[in-house]
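Standup, Tuesday
Yesterday: got the pipeline producing structure tokens again.
Today: sanity-check two examples.
Blockers: none.

Example 1:
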Amino acid sequence: MERRRNRRPPGAAAAFSYRGGVRIAGTVLACDASTGRDLTFISSAAVAPQARLGGGDRGRRQLLLTETTLALLGRTGERVRRAALCAGYGRPFLLGEVRIELFPSGHLPGAASLLAEVEGRRIVYAGSLGVAGFEARTAQALWMDATFGHGRFAFPERAEALAAARRFTEEALAAGRQPVLLAAPRGDALDLAAALAEAGIPSRAGRAVLAAASDFRRAGLPVAPLLRFAGRLRAGEALLWPPDSRDAAIVRALPSAAFALVSGWAADSDIARRLRVEAAIPLSDRADRARLLAYAAATGATEIALAGSGAADLVGVLSGDGRRAYVLGPPRQLDLLPPGAVLRTEPCPPHLG
């Protein structure tokens, strides 16, 4: 794949740069960064693997995040707690002469966006926005994850998608089959477990989902009961499994599995086809195109930096009328789908929401 160059707006100095993470000009802030010794803002527990918090430099940089996000990092959070500066939503503080405020992004429990006021300029690092519960702040400059910014991503209400997943599960069980719901371990899979539990359907899960559930419980968040999957499903049970492990031998051994992709990526027919699922249910904990556009408009930002597989598509939509939009992010992101699962050349983010 050709490496995509970061593009900055012409004219005025950009509010953002990219070097192992997004850097905010005029500050020591590095957002969701994997390298450096600056103060690193961690927007959610979902980005911890990319930020390499368990890496060898964890003792040489300070972390800015919410207490809930720190708790959701599990053992990694315990190891880095001494380097953590925990801040609550809507409680501004000064970092030198820079005013900082964290506020809800709606992505996961504890997930946050960041507002930095630098020499009279308001700069927002939104991170990954959720589908509900996020807040907006007025700003001159904005960075946001536009993974689902392409026009093909228009998600139904979350309750509607959960109901569709429950119906798929019930119909598979009624047909004597074994329902396997492919969903991201954090957020989507745990919400599915709760929806199925309400319908009286017990769920089993693999290691990644069980680990996420354990982290949520330690953070004091409610989690539906989950059973460990060891290769067998009993009558009436469903399996929650990560999409990137669709072809794991232990799952292939199920005698009559019925697969459904329950993810924002289900809106991409190519991915659903390559994952060989019988149902594609677009359940996402991250904002789709319409929500991203509405958020950008609500901030009033005239400089908009975007990253993720839908960034290039949104640049043209957001540019104009005094606004300048550009792509700024890693040249290539890893995806967790099986090799060859994505037909398009757009990279999938590490978190399949």
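Example 2:
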Amino acid sequence: MLRAGPFSDERVTGLANRRFVPFFFDLSVRGAAGDPDARRFLVQARPKFGRGQVPTPPVFFMTPTGEVVGEVSNYASADEVLETMLRVLREHPEWAKPAAEEAGLKGLAKAQLLVDLQDLDGALKVLGGKADDDYRLARGKIHRRRRAWTLMKKDLDAIGDAKLEDQVRMERAYPMWFGRDWTQLEKHLADFPKESARYTEARYYLGLARFHQEKKGEALATWKATIAGCSQDPWIYRSDWAFCNAQQNKSSGSFSSAGPRTSPLNRIGYLGPKNPDLDGPTPRRRTR
């Protein structure tokens, strides 16, 4: 569930890859991801998880020596996971800003670091007003994160590099998504090129555009074909989550196992709460 939910969110994955070492394992050493060493490491810190039947464990934030410095429910939203990660870093500034990481970076690379660290103001300052298409795209992505559509459009409209066409096209889809313009969103993404690095992202939103027009069968077919035809990535996991929940046709997305009729990934285990995108875009949250 975490890979389909919080860890398919670009904010969470960006910060996790910059400041944490993510890993998962089965508490049962006989599970598909059984790891006896990891199990012992956790049980030393939380003995109750070595006693057989236990509730679904939370996500733990631990030091290399086994100290638990934070935790968040396995059922948490991406916002809750992100807030917990940022709190852990605030409480442990020694991990928050390694000087060596920023020292050799400049331009786009430094801006991306700051974006991953959730410092959007700092990233925009680094990017400045440089009239370079890669810089315009980077600024456009930040404006999209803030839902500053006018500023985003200004930067995207100025991009002339044909190699960035797919990137620009995907960015332009987001105002349609947040504006609930399902018909236009479907039309905009319908023939997105498969060779694009953002193909799975486009297909995920194409499925949502169809789902919200009550074309459930077409939405399911879109997600299933994408999952079957592409390498696994965060958008594939998220598509599987949407497919599973749409198949269930229930208010809650919880279930204990998933076979091929329910999950194209044949996922086993808890899939968490309902994919919020099936209810439409979420309200805007404040971002630094």
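Quick observation on example 2: The chain has a mean pLDDT of 89. Residues 89 and 96 are 5 Å apart (CA to CA).
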